[in-house]
Every structure is written in structure tokens, then in C-alpha cells.
Amino acid sequence: MNQLSNGDAVDESFLVADKQLRANRQGNLYLHLELRDKTGSVGARLWNASEGLARTFDPGDYLRVKGKTQVFQGALQLILSHIEVVDPTKIEPEDYLPQSTQNVARLTARLREILLSISNPHLRALVECFLIDEEFVRKFTTAPAGIKNHHAYHAGLLEHVVTILTIADRIVDLYPELDRDLLLTGIFLHDIGKVSELSYDRAFAYSDEGQLVGHLVMGVEMLRDKVEQSADLTGEPFPNELLLRLKHMIVSHHGTHEFGSPKLPMTLEAIALHYLDNLDAKIHTFSREIRDDPCRESSWTPFQQNLGRRLFKGIAQSNGLPDESMEP
Amino acid sequence: MNQLSNGDAVDESFLVADKQLRANRQGNLYLHLELRDKTGSVGARLWNASEGLARTFDPGDYLRVKGKTQVFQGALQLILSHIEVVDPTKIEPEDYLPQSTQNVARLTARLREILLSISNPHLRALVECFLIDEEFVRKFTTAPAGIKNHHAYHAGLLEHVVTILTIADRIVDLYPELDRDLLLTGIFLHDIGKVSELSYDRAFAYSDEGQLVGHLVMGVEMLRDKVEQSADLTGEPFPNELLLRLKHMIVSHHGTHEFGSPKLPMTLEAIALHYLDNLDAKIHTFSREIRDDPCRESSWTPFQQNLGRRLFKGIAQSNGLPDESMEP
Amino acid sequence: MNQLSNGDAVDESFLVADKQLRANRQGNLYLHLELRDKTGSVGARLWNASEGLARTFDPGDYLRVKGKTQVFQGALQLILSHIEVVDPTKIEPEDYLPQSTQNVARLTARLREILLSISNPHLRALVECFLIDEEFVRKFTTAPAGIKNHHAYHAGLLEHVVTILTIADRIVDLYPELDRDLLLTGIFLHDIGKVSELSYDRAFAYSDEGQLVGHLVMGVEMLRDKVEQSADLTGEPFPNELLLRLKHMIVSHHGTHEFGSPKLPMTLEAIALHYLDNLDAKIHTFSREIRDDPCRESSWTPFQQNLGRRLFKGIAQSNGLPDESMEP
Amino acid sequence: MNQLSNGDAVDESFLVADKQLRANRQGNLYLHLELRDKTGSVGARLWNASEGLARTFDPGDYLRVKGKTQVFQGALQLILSHIEVVDPTKIEPEDYLPQSTQNVARLTARLREILLSISNPHLRALVECFLIDEEFVRKFTTAPAGIKNHHAYHAGLLEHVVTILTIADRIVDLYPELDRDLLLTGIFLHDIGKVSELSYDRAFAYSDEGQLVGHLVMGVEMLRDKVEQSADLTGEPFPNELLLRLKHMIVSHHGTHEFGSPKLPMTLEAIALHYLDNLDAKIHTFSREIRDDPCRESSWTPFQQNLGRRLFKGIAQSNGLPDESMEP
Amino acid sequence: MNQLSNGDAVDESFLVADKQLRANRQGNLYLHLELRDKTGSVGARLWNASEGLARTFDPGDYLRVKGKTQVFQGALQLILSHIEVVDPTKIEPEDYLPQSTQNVARLTARLREILLSISNPHLRALVECFLIDEEFVRKFTTAPAGIKNHHAYHAGLLEHVVTILTIADRIVDLYPELDRDLLLTGIFLHDIGKVSELSYDRAFAYSDEGQLVGHLVMGVEMLRDKVEQSADLTGEPFPNELLLRLKHMIVSHHGTHEFGSPKLPMTLEAIALHYLDNLDAKIHTFSREIRDDPCRESSWTPFQQNLGRRLFKGIAQSNGLPDESMEP
Amino acid sequence: MNQLSNGDAVDESFLVADKQLRANRQGNLYLHLELRDKTGSVGARLWNASEGLARTFDPGDYLRVKGKTQVFQGALQLILSHIEVVDPTKIEPEDYLPQSTQNVARLTARLREILLSISNPHLRALVECFLIDEEFVRKFTTAPAGIKNHHAYHAGLLEHVVTILTIADRIVDLYPELDRDLLLTGIFLHDIGKVSELSYDRAFAYSDEGQLVGHLVMGVEMLRDKVEQSADLTGEPFPNELLLRLKHMIVSHHGTHEFGSPKLPMTLEAIALHYLDNLDAKIHTFSREIRDDPCRESSWTPFQQNLGRRLFKGIAQSNGLPDESMEP
Fold first, then answer.
1. B125 at the E interface (CB within 8 A)?
2. ipTM
3. Can you give the residue ranges of the HD/PDEase domain (chains A, B, C, D, E, F) (predicted)?
């Protein structure tokens, strides 16, 4: 979908992300759709639609559409001439949602490799309890790290966690006070709540539990269940201080109350986790916004609402007319 | 008006809240109106209008209109075929502005009943001075509590004040340190400035004085006038400390500088007023947003700008596709 | 202890809250103690102490002391002439920590009465699971609501919760949209984490878990355990939406991120809980500061760091010289 | 008093600003006083005092004291050998409170001169109503502009207002949109509430009304009274818009909610007033802190809590060791 | 351009500020342009345009256009019937960008006059080094003071600086502690970085350096270069303390970290500069918004995003219907 | 010095960091000194001092002192029996200021090694210009990174920069979009202003320039000088975009306006620098506070003003009495 340009003819299948039946000024009905594949989404219109046709499908279904592209109010849209519902059993849902560009199997193997290097027996047993839980691993290796922000694609969470684990593994010798096992375990666990905070089978969204309780608290609950399993496995109680330190890393990793942490980081591993998490998330976000900005003529991206700033892409080979849309 | 759905024929009278004469792409003139009755407002268009026709009425007048409804850009609008100015003397203005669903006479009786249970003679005389002022009572029992926020309808202020008085009356025995008479009087007075801060005879709006001075300061001025009357009535000077405490309750009831109070609550009755005021206002706002949200398919209301959050309505019986529009 | 005045002779037993051995300018050792009973605490000095004597007791032990009171730098202190360690088995610890002035048995009965009026069978079974847990009830009816802020005494938490339950019970009919059973259960549960966040057997303090994880997250964990018991009891799964709503009330009851809630209140019962909690806490704090301020000559309390303001006590019968220490 | 240095013998009369009877470690009583004259204040101790002696005077009385100065904990204090109560009728109270260094009569004349240059008849009549009110003029020409901040001395308010009026008078021609009469009247009125917000006959303090209601609201009330007089005087009603603009200037002159204004400046004259007020106040504060800093060896004043910064006094001729006490 | 009203025929030349080629619903191409002259800008459409025509010009070029005006969605636009590229050598660029209404030569003379009244030889030499730099003077007398905020027109920076210099010159005698020479020099230099932070030859914009480094730091760099020249000129080193004070005035003049100053004002001249700068900028902004608001029927301007408020224009002679669009 | 405990006899040389001559209650003079060696500082008193003795030395001089230690108000102090001025030529100043525990020569070698791996010829030439400047290298390898915060010891800046360079070097391959040469150069340069912002020859302090201008702006000025040299060296102009990106990294590295950056990070390398800088600084600060806390009986450090929190040291083997001094 990110290959389309103005005036292209289109004949492809898409996921229906949104559907509205509207009337134009003359009172004629038309369909306004949002269509999506794994590279992005686009608005689409089918003129002269009927209520009957509109009832044949819902958001979440797949449509094969024919039509052509057109620029409207500065954005590309599809003007459809034909639509047809597609049998979902013939569809690979993952073709319709954004994916990590990295090899998920290799990332998963790397995750196991780093986690199995943990030597503290309690922490080692704990991470194993997670790794042998197939349902958990399926979700953890599929979930995005967010809906719109950094790593917002399938396996984005895995990619994010493996990167931070790799960084931690490489630099932990520089800080002898840091407990390597605790840091690695905390990095692995910090976002586990996201596997249920988000839903990502068809479209990416927050679950009701995600919005009402949030992945920090959900992560602590998941940790508790596995700690009990782990104690059964080792035959020894999980050390209380270790458990407190892990819970603390989960609830404090956003770093400030303002960003939703009920506690500020108060241990060495918690503060390290907070900055490593941010380092990877922000580099990822900056890279994506700079890379994906379609406008070649400006040295700057548009204003990024989430970041509160525009980003500098490098001095453009534009026609020399300065960009007028920015006032700090 | 909140009964209308797509394609309905309409033949009714409305208040004109806004009027614009515009030209379409072909240069033909049309009228763009905002029409209102007590259940809500709607946009309306009359194609092929003339300047002559447009001059026959202004915002604030009433029109009888014929036409039919249509969905445009996701919202309902009226396409008018005929308009006709209505003689305002044949109109009940209150049919065209939102009303409390409660019985205003009964609310007013309840207000008197609670206030006349005040035993401190100075405070009792003071509230009587307000209650015998017919012009004040007319305004106080008509005014909304706001333009857009909580209780934004005729008699909304009365409903709000009577509810808080009722709560205070029921719980004051739990806190022996609270002065019942002072608390009830302060609740009654805290928003009296709103009777002049807002205008609400035809549409709801802020008066110039409301915007430049605000209902906190205006309330103190109104209190001062009645305190003089009250002293004349009782033949005794109104006790200075009592007056200071009442003024303080008025100027501090927003609770923080950020919300426009020049002083923080520094007495027991002032802090109680602040939380009771907020309790009722927020429960009212949450209830209305949850009740009035027209979208049945989502568990959540849209993002509420004033509240900085979405509200949870309960898990919807939707088609299972999660809502994608939310990123915290 | 709050009966002491300058020059009194003292012969009583106290809890040692703090102990320091210091040297004066001449190099002579003396003991600096903080002594406490249920009415308050006082600094004390024993001149010419030896290291041997200092080793005979620790903070948390009880001492019988003789001496007399003296004003030093504006505060009362004890100058000790004799100290003697007391056998702790002869001590009632509750005589040495602040207590609720209300009857704890009656409060507990009132708690049961209100909670057993809940009609939703799942919520009713849930609260019963808590009420039949004797260890929980013992802690819940003993814990303070805080260390320094409101209700900072034994059974303070119980007193706080029963008061809010009573208010909710009296006013819930004013708001038909509020779910009475959900609101009462949420009020009961909102601070349960405090029974382990704080330690209060000898002195009041935060536990390590309290500081690292906090009572909001701890409360969710406690709720989860009881929900499992409750489902076993009823033989039916606890409804998921009900559980989410309860967890949400616990995690959001501080109202804003700034005060440590990871989520803002997004349901009607959650916003009601937040304001009722604050209403009671602030009225309690204001009452205590005004009542306990020992200075009769000023109309104002000293500046309250936690509240960011001074409180008005009423115009004092002082000698007319205004207080100079206040600059807003 | 600001002439005293270490070891000086003292034999002078002072105002008693504070009095405390304390016991030392040996249980002997001593008096701890704060003594004041118009150049400043100093702590003083009289060893071996009796309760009888202490009862012979109160704060607000005057004492003749003998003793000598001594440096204690970095500050100068008086060690008294003799005290004696002074008959207050033989005292000029203004000798014991800080005074403007400018000629008050000349400042008052300048105030009248500028105000009487107002040409709008309503505003002219209004300011005359203030100027013929002798009690008001007495207070207005005596009051300090604050307790601790800028212009904290007798006639400080007058000095502040006359300076701003002079600036406005000199620059108003640069901004043709500014209404000179309105601006001058608003400057004159903006702080009139301070004549009752503060008490300054013996020591400087906030009155109860000042703390509970504040000089912004008090100023609006004072304005209303004079506007009625003024309308009687001119025989014409005071124009409503003019009154609103004046009230708005008073309530908005602190510029932001954070600094206690219930309204932001929304007129041209209100925004000009806000910046002129700040310009004079801040230049005054900076000048005083730089001039009064007694430490000659540092290029910097100590950290100013009110300003949130240290001030640069100019590179000192010190011994070259940089000041170590500053970490931003 | 600000003379145009609905239905006017137009035959004039404009600067092309933006150009987009779009397709309408029927797939026909049209040009969407933003055209500009020194009085403002307007949107324009040319129906049935070809790609070939669109390639004949770019933003920054000039077009002669024929067409007529039309109201679309509440704003005026041009419907073009004919366009023709204009030879830029026949154009006076300054006719197409907003200009100061004051005489630039006279402002420049006034600038020199005030600056040459500086008596400190180092500061005098320094300002002369700027004034003899023709390229600098050309830019300084052409640059706007901003893109959208105050003084956003050619020579706006000069107008702003000359006004503040004039104010400082008139009031400096009121504050004997202020160093007149230092204050005037600092006012002159505070915004010099803007001559390169902004680009203003064809349209107004931020330069890349302006966005990445900012005019505060750029101004310090420019100052350093001239200080070296100045020392060469006088044959004496520029005094270090004087240079620090000037740099400090530049980097601190925004007054707070929040507004981008890396240092708070810590000298008398720096704090004076900060308030004088704001006084002029805010009076200018308020005046412009009140003067330029086209809506005669409301007493209020629309909400000003930059100022966080609406401005009061004076009570309107409207039809009495209050304005409904405001909720604080 | 950090080896001292209560009652130790002392006979050593120290740097005098502060000197005050005071009088006690009996009017006898004594000296109050702050003494320092490289492990810390301590307060000291010499009773019965004379003015003559006090004049024989100043802060910045060295004293040999005899005396013994004593606990006063919870802190250790020295009671001196003898002092004697030491000939500074016989002193190694670095023995009296805190030092890095790492080998400075090895750190310097590591710095060169990493920087000389830069391949971009302009950046390579630029860093060489710094490395061949012996005066710069001497300062850069001596300066602390701060006065009180992280790395507040000689060579602390070098240690900090080498650590971040090492981390960047190890992880840059994980982010292909990051420009390694630019990132390494920016890390090297980000704090160069500190070599003149601080003074650290005898005691650590801010220079006047450091306080008035700050190390961000000073660093840009230093960069400019070296860029000119570098262009001379290579015979090619230094690329403008590269220079802008380096300046931007320096001015934005504090990350937010609140922490004194005039610009937010807007490039990939600037955001990476910001988080790497913080990661190292915060891990360093947490490690030091946890390691240096002398109190073995508490699981927690005291409240850290700079961090706004206490830090968790691990569950202590204390006597079980919880710490009472913490209220969140």
C-alpha cells in the first residue's frame, strides 16, 4: 500500500478497518471505508452504494477491491468501482497488519540465549517458567510494543526487548554495582503486561483491561503467577527481596508519575532499565519518523505531536523556498 | 431534535443560533444555519438562497423550517426546502433551550426548606434577603451551572446547589467540627455570581462581565449588598468574621490557583465546599457523557477534552473488533 | 504526654522511638532520645550517659524515665535524671501508639453491617471472603491510614473507610447512575494494600514493599487472591467486567498521575470514590491541624507543608499585634 | 541598627517584635526577644530573666535596652544586661518601622499631579473621590507594598505606584492604542486593596481579611464604593464598560492564575499594567538584594528563595577562592 | 488583498507561497495555490489545470492571475480563470511581504542616535562595529521580529528594538542602579541572532540554523566576533566582566527555562531587558489582534492559541445575542 | 578523612575550605573552619582563638591541625587543640580534592583511541585539534563533571565521557541509522564547556562565566574556535550541516527546556546523546549514594533532594524497627 501513487489502478484485497454509509449533498448514498494491509492504511469511497451492499460486511472482514487512486485534500484515497467480500479462511491475517522487518525466529532464539545466561537460580527458574509457557511465548513474540508509538508492529515488543537485553549484556561490565541477572530479568519482564494490554490479532488496539488497569499492574500480576510456579519448580521459596526488586522494576519503569509509574525508580537496576527502555524507544521513533516522512522537499518532518517537536532530516535539495509552517 | 435520524422529513420551528450566507463552487449562494431546540442543535443548509431572504432574520429569531435530514461527514444535518420567520410572541423561549429534567418548583421549595433550617440569626437573615429578592430568585432558578460543562441547562445551577445542600445536610453530623449553618450558607452562595456571569435568556453564553471579572468576584459583590440589607433587617451589624468566612468560601471554592481561585481553601467549611462541589459536578459530567454517547458499538466514550480521558461505559456487545482510536 | 507543660516532673514509661549517643562540647557523652506514648512524642536528654548504659536498650524498647520538662528552642523536652528498661511483657503496646478515639468494635460492626447490605452475589461473596479472614480483619481494624497525614493512628484506616461508606450509603440515592454495590465494595477495597504497606505494631512506618511497590498495586494483588476464593465459594467465576471495575477503582483512586495513580478514574464509581476519599481525608486533616495547634494567640496555624497553606482558626483574642511570619 | 558590628555596646530603644521566655540546659530562665527599629531587626537575649520581668511588656511595646553585640551562628545578636519599658506616648512609632527613603509629601504631590491630568470626566471624578478621602490617603501614603518582597517599608506602596505612573506617563505616546486615562487610573487602583490587606501601624503583617480574601477582591470592593460616590458627584451613572475594564485590571494584574489572578489580562491596559508592575517590582527587588548583601568577598548574593536564583553583584576583589556553595 | 470581499473580480500579481496539483472526485486535475502580497494571503483554485501548466512555476515565483472571489467554508478564496508567470526582475519583492508601517530610514536614524549616546568607550566601540557593518545593518533593518507572533513584518525587529531603546532611555533615570550604557547595548543586541535565525527575503521562515541552534546562542556567537573587532579598533582588550554581562543578557532575555533561556536573568540590566522586551511584544500582539479582528459583531476576538485567552475589544453594537463559543 | 570515627585523635594537614571567627555566649572568640582532603570535608572548631591567629591564613590555604573528633548534632566534627599554616609549595594540591579512582593516563589513552577511530575527515581533524591543544587536554583530564552531582571529583568529566564513548562504540551497530562518527564527536564535545564553567584547582566551584553563560553556550564558542583551526588544517571549509549538527548536540543535550537546554533534541544523534548521558550520570549517582550511605541499620538512604526520592540499599539486618522518617 505504501507503493501507491496518484492515478494508479488497484485490484487487491484489504482488511476493512472502518465502514460508514453516508449520503452526499444530493442525498445519494456512498460508502466510506478505511482499508489496511501490513504496509499501512488508506481511505476509500464507493459512490452510489446501497444499504444492502453495506450490510454484507463489517470492520474486521476482508474485501477485494478494484478502483483507482486519487489525491484528496493532500492525502491519497481510493475511488472504488467494485468490492467483493473475501473468504477469511483464504487469508493470512498477518499479511494485513504491520510486521517486524527482523526474523522473528532468530529474535526469539536470541531472547532465549540471553535469558538462559542468567546464573541466579531463582531468576533462571523464573524466566524458564515464562519460556516454557507456549501461549505466553506466542503472544510475547507477536505483540507490538504499542499502538502508534515505537515498535507498533507485530513482534515489535520482542524486537524492543531483545535490543535492550543486548545493550545491557554489552555494557553491564562497565558498572560493577549493577546485578546482571536482576537487570536482564527486569528488562525481560518490564513490558510483559502488554501481551494482554493490547489486542493485535486483527487490528492493534487497547483491551478494556489495558485501559482500566494498565500493563504495569498487569505485569505484576503475571509475575506473581509465574513466581509461584517457579517456587514449585525449584522447591524453594522465591526470595522476597528479589521479588520486590522485580515488581519495583515493573511498576517504576516509566520513570515518573507523570508518565504513569506509581513509583519512581529507587534501585540501581530500576534506573538503568528506565533509561535503556527510553534510549531504544526514542531512537526507534526518531528513525521511523525521519525515514517514513514522504516529503522530500523539506529539511524537517512535520510537527510530531507525541514528541512536541519537528525532527531534522538533513538539509534538503529543495528549491530554496524556506518552510513557512513552523513557529516555535 | 435528538429523535431525528437519517432521511426524516422535518416540519418544525427552531431558534436560529447562527446564520451564514455562503457561495458554493459554482458561485451560487446558500444559507448555512445552526438551529436549536431544547433537546440539542443541528446544522442546516438552504440551497439557492438570496441575500434578500437572508436579511429577513437574525440569530436569536425563530424559523419554521421544512426539509429532510441527511448524514454529512458523520453528522446529521438538515437540507431545507422552505423557511419562514415565526412571530416571537407566539413562542415559548424555554422550548428552545435545554431544561432540567427535574421539577423546578419542587427544587425551589427544597432550596427554601433547607436554607430556612439555618439557625444562626445572621446567616438566616442573610439567606432570607436573597430569597425575598424575586429578581434574584427568578435568575437563580433559571440559570444553567455552565455553558458546556456540568448542568448546562436551565435550572442546572439550582439542581446543582440543591444536590450539594442535600448531601451536606445528610453528612454534617459525621463531622462535629463543621459549622452546619456556615456550610449551608456557603454552598448556597458559592456560585451566585453565575446568575450574572452567564446569559441564558435565548442562548447560553458568558456575559462580558463574566469573562472580565468572573463569578467568584461577582459573587462577593452580590454578597456585600445583601449583607447590608440583612444588617438593616436585623438591626445588628453582620459579624465581621462570619462575613470573611463567607467571602473566603466564595473566592476559594475552585480549590487551586490553577482553576482560578485567588485563595486556597483555608477553613474547614471552605475545604468541604470545594470537595462537595467537585463531587457533584464530576458525577454529573461522567453520567451525562456515558448516557449521551450515541455509539453503541464501543465500550468507551470518545476522548473527553475537558476531562483529559475517555470514559468506560461497560463492555459492549460489539462485533469484537477492538477500538483503534486510542493511544494514551 | 500532650498534658505536659514547662517545669513538670515526670515519672512514666515510654516507647523509645529513637536513640543517639552524642558528645557535648566538653567531650562528655549524653543520650538523646525520642520518647513516645499514644498521645504524642517528645525529645529527651540524659546528661553524662555511658556507652554501657546506651547498649542496654534499643529503639522499640520501653523505658521508665524520671526527669523534668523544659522548653528548648520553643519546644518542650525532657531532661532525664534516671532511666530503666521495662519488661515488654508487662506493657500494652497499644498504650504507646496513637489510637482512634472511636470505639473500634463498634466501627467494625458498622463495617460489617454496611458491607453485608450489598446485594450483588459476587460482590457480597467477595467482601465476605475478606471479613472471614481473621488475620486480615485484625490488620484492617488496627492499621493507621497513614504515617503523618490524615488518620495517622491505630484503627485510623477503619475509621476512614467506615466514614466514607456511611456517606456513600446516605447519598447514593441522589445519583441513580451509581451502582451502590460496586461503590461500597470499591470504597472498602481502595486502601486494603495499606495493611501491608505500613507497619504499625510498634512504631508507624512504611514497609520495604510499601515503598517499592505501593498500596495501590498491593491492593490489586490482595483482591486477586480473594476473588479466587470467592469464585470457589460461589461455584461461579467472578465476572470479568466486575473485577476490572474493582481493580480500576483501586489503581485510580488517587485521582491523578501526580499523586501516584497509574490510571485516571474512568468510571462513575471510580470518580465518586476519589472525591469521597479526599473529602474525608481533607476534612480530617484540617480539623486535626486546627484543633491541635497549641498556639492560642494567633488566628492562624503555622504553615502546613503538606497542604501548602496556613489554616484559619478563627479570630484570636490576642493582644492585637498581627502575626508577621506570613508572606504568600 | 544596620550600623551595628561585633562587640559594640548598645544603649537604645527598640520595638519588641517578639518575646519568648525559655529555659537553658541548666533550667535557668532567659528572655529571647526580637527587637526592631526602622533600619532592621535583631535577636536579643537576656540571661537569668524572671517570669515577673517577662510579664511587664508584650510584643508591640517599646524597650530601652543596654548590652553588647555578638556574632552567633553567623548572625549578630544582642546580649542584654538591662531592659526597661518605655512610655509609648514618648515614642514616634515611625522611628521603629522601615521607611521610604523618598520624601512622602513630594511623592503624594506627584501622585495628585499625575492623577489630576486625567481628562475622562468619569475617571477624573473617580480618582478625586479617592483623593478627598483623607483616611484612605493616609493609609495609601503609609502602607508598604508588601511584608518581605519589594517596597516592604512605610510609603513603599506609594513609591511603587508613583514610579509606575511616571513610567506610563512617559511612554504612553509610543502606543496610540493605549487609553492613557484608563491606564493611569488602573495603575493607581491596582493595589489599593493592600491598604487593608496589610497592617502596618506597629509591625508589618497580613490582616485576617488580607489572608482570607486578598487585595485583588478587596480592591474591587473599594472601587465599587467609590464609583457610587463618584456617580453621585457627577450626577451621571459611571459607564458600565469603564467599570468592567477597571475591575478587570485589578483582578488580572498578577498576570497568571499561578500568581493568584482569577482572570488573565484580556485588555490592552491590563496587559500593560501587568508588565509595568513587574518591571518596577523586580528592578526594586534585584537592586535591594544586590545593595544590601553584606558579604563583600563573593561576586554573588546568597540564593534568593523568592526569585529562585542567586544574583550577580559584579566580580569581587576577593582572595580568588571561588564560592563553593552553588549547584544549580 | 485585505480589501477583497465576496464576488470581487481580481486581476493582479501575487507571490506563490504554495502550489498543489490535485484531482477532484471526477478525476479531473485542478491547481490549489496559496497566493500572497504584503497585506496577507489567500487560497486559490484553478479548475481543469494540466500537469504541463503546473510545471511552469514553483512556490517563490510570481503569477499574474485573473478570477473572482468566493466564500468557501467561511473563508474567502479565489476562483481563477487565467494565470501567467511574471518576470521576477519586474517585481519589487517587498511588495509581496508584510512591511512595517513606520519609516525604516527614520527608525534606523533613531537607532544610531540612541546607540551613539552610549558613553562607555568599550560599549560605544562595540555598537559602532555593528553599525559600520553594512551587511549586518541591511539585515537588521529588514528582518521581522518573528514569523507569526509580534512584529511579524519587514523591519519589525528594528521597530521593536527602537521602541524598547526609547522606553529605556526615558525611564533609566528612575533607577539609579541601572547602568544606562549596558542596558542600551543589551537591548540592541538581545535579538541580533534573529537576523540569521529567520529567512525573510521571499517568505518568512526559520532557517535550519535557527531551528537547531536558536537566536540566543547565535547572538552570542555574533557578539564574540564583533568584540574581537572592537578590541582591535580600540587597541584595548574588551573588559571581561562587561562581555559576560552582555552574553548573559542575550542568553537570559526570555526570562525562564520554559521559554528557552538556558539561564535566568541574574543581573539588574538582564531583568530590566526581560520585562521591557515582554512589555513591548505583548502590547504589540494585543493591539494587532484587537485591531485586525474582522468580526464586528462580537465584543471579543476569537481564542488566541499563543496567548491562551480571548481578548476584549469593547462592548459591540451587536444584535444582542451573546457569543456562545466560549467556555473557560 | 572518611576513615574518622568518634573520639579519634587527629594530626594531619587539610585544605581550608571555609573560615569564620565567631564569639560564643560568653563573648569568647573561636574559629569555625571547614577542612577538606580528597576523601571529603569536616567541620572543625578551635576554642579561644584570637583575631591575630585568624588573620594568618585564608580559605584556600593549608593547615596542619591536631585535635580529636566528636559527634555534634549527629555529624562528626573536629575539636582542634593546635593549628599551623603549611607551606603550600610542600603540598600536592591533588591530595586535597577528590580524585577519580581510575587511572587517568589510561582513561586519556582510551579517549584518544576511540576518537582516532573516527573516519569522517572533518570530524577527525576537529577532534585532533582538541587533542593537540595541551592546555585543553590538561583541563579536560582534570575537571570534575560537576560540583555536587555525579562524577564530582578530579578527572570525573573524563571518566564520564570515556564511559559514554565506550557504550556508544559497543552499541552503535544495533542502530544503522546512527552516524557513528557524529555520535562519538558529539559525546566528546557535549560537556567541553565545563572545563571553564567550573573551577577546580583548589576547591570545586562555578566560575562567574559558568553561572552567567553556562557550559552549553560556552561549549559552542569553544567548538567554533576549533572548527576554524580544523578548516585551516584540512584546507577545506568545515561542512556547514555537520557544524550545525554538532552545535545542536551541545545545546540540546540536557533534553528539555526545564533542565536548561534552549533547544530540544531534534536529530537522531542528539537524542541518543541525551539518553546515554543520563544513563551514565544516574547510574553513577545511584551507585555513589547507595555505597556511601554510612547508616547500616536502614534499608534506605536518606531522602535525596536532587533525586526527589530515597534509594533502596537492600533489606538491612537491622533490629527490625522500621524507619519512621518517610512519608511520600
1. no
2. 0.84
3. 153-291
- B64 with B200, same domain? no
Cα(A190)–Cα(A251) distance, integer angstroms: 8
Domain tally for chain D?
A: 2
Closest C-alpha among E29, E65, E67 to residue E47: E29
- The CATH number of residue F246's host domain is 1.10.3210
Entry pTM: 0.87
Q: State whether C211 and F300 contact (CB < 8 Å).
A: yes
- Answer whether B touches D (≥3 Cβ pairs < 8 Å): yes
Does the distance separating the beta carbons of D323 and F205 come in below 8 Å? yes
Instruction: Tell me the range of B257-271, B298-312, C193-207 where mean pLDDT is highest.
Output: B257-271
Q: Which three cell numbers stand for residue C308?
A: 501548602
Which chain D residue's Cα is nearest to E241? D315
C-alpha distances in Å from residue E324, one per residue of A31, B141, F313: 35, 21, 59
Q: Are residues E141 and E179 in the same domain?
A: yes
CA distance A51 to A31: 9
* Assigned domain for E328 exists: no
> Domain check: are B85 and B102 in the same one?
no
Residue D23 has which C-alpha cell?
529555659
Q: Which three cell numbers stand for residue C243?
A: 473485577
Q: Per the CB < 8 Å rule, is A283 touching F291? A: no
Record: contact B314-C241, CB cut-off 8 A: yes
Distance from CA of F44 to the nearest CA of A (A): 34
Quick check: B242 and B182 in contact, CB under 8 A?
yes
- Contact call for F328 and C260, based on CB within 8 A: yes
Count of other CB atoms within 10 angstroms of residue D158: 24
Whether residue C119 sits in one domain with residue C222: yes
pLDDT tens-digit series, residues F242-270: 999 999 999 999 999 999 999 999 999 99
| Angle (CA) F22 F28 F31, round 5° | 35
Pick from B55, B74, B94: which residue ends a domain? B94
> What is the domain range of residue D230?
98-286
Same domain, A103 and A213: yes
Do C and E make contact via 3 or more CB pairs under 8 A? The reply is no
C138 and C223 housed in the same domain: yes
Helix (H, G, I), strand (E, B) or coil at A306: coil
Query: Are D77 and D119 in a shared domain?
Result: no
* Of D94, D114, D138, the domain-final residue: D94
Pairwise CB contact (< 8 Å): C319 & D149: no
In angstroms, the CA B204 to CA E326 distance is 10
Q: Do chains B and C touch (3 or more CB pairs under 8 A)?
A: yes
pLDDT digits (tens, 9 = 90+) for A259-282: 999 999 999 999 999 999 999 999
C-alpha cell at A39: 504496509
- The pLDDT tens digits for C263-293 are 999 999 999 999 999 999 999 999 998 987 7
Contact D192, D222 (CB under 8 A): yes
The residue of chain B nearest to residue C257, with distances taken between CA atoms, is B308
The reply to whether residue E248 touches residue F224, judged by beta carbons under 8 angstroms, is no
Q: Does E107 touch chain F (CB under 8 A)?
A: no
- Give chains near F: 3+ CB pairs under 8 A: A, C, D, E
**Contact E212/D at CB under 8 A:** no
Same-domain pairing of C242 and C224: yes
Per-residue model confidence (pLDDT) at position F322: 35
- Determine contact, residues C289/C296, Cβ cutoff 8 Å: no
Closest partner residue to B22 among E71, E310, E322, by Cβ? E71
